[in-house]
Amino acid sequence: MDLLKEYRDRRSAQNKKVIDNADKVVKRIFSLDTITFHDGALDAKTKEMIGLTTSLVLRCDDCVKYHLEKCVEVGYTKEQIIEGMAVGNVVGGTIVIPHLRRAVEYLEALFDEKENA
């Protein structure tokens, strides 16, 4: 299955299951997560890069993929995203390298999709 489609379909199905079974606390956490990335003193674009780099440091591959998608969506270039991930790799150390590998693979797929759209 296509790398992008597999992630998107799985995330969508899992989110539906969570929301269908969510209590007030989980619904509020999801809402807080959404509004955190709206424009404020920092614009949404900057917040997405922060989300990407912190997700990389925390070694959350699902979060990294989500923020890679958003970074491409808000207009970052491939070079800007790579540079942002380099900062995350320096902060997180060499343990982040396997996650960086998967992130770059996913990023390339996103830009291939964008070029072929």
Descriptors:
117 residues, AhpD-like, single chain
Number of helices: 6
Kindly give the count of domains: 1
**What proportion of the residues is helical, as a percent range?**
over 70%
Q: Architecture, CATH level 2?
A: Up-down Bundle
- How far apart lie the N and C ends? 19 Å
Describe this structure in words.
By secondary structure, this protein is an all-alpha fold. The chain has one domain: AhpD-like (Up-down Bundle). The chain is built from six helices and no strands. The chain is globular. The two termini are 19 Å apart. The model has no long low-confidence stretch (mean pLDDT 97). This is Alkylhydroperoxidase. It holds the Pfam family CMD. GO terms for molecular function: peroxiredoxin activity.
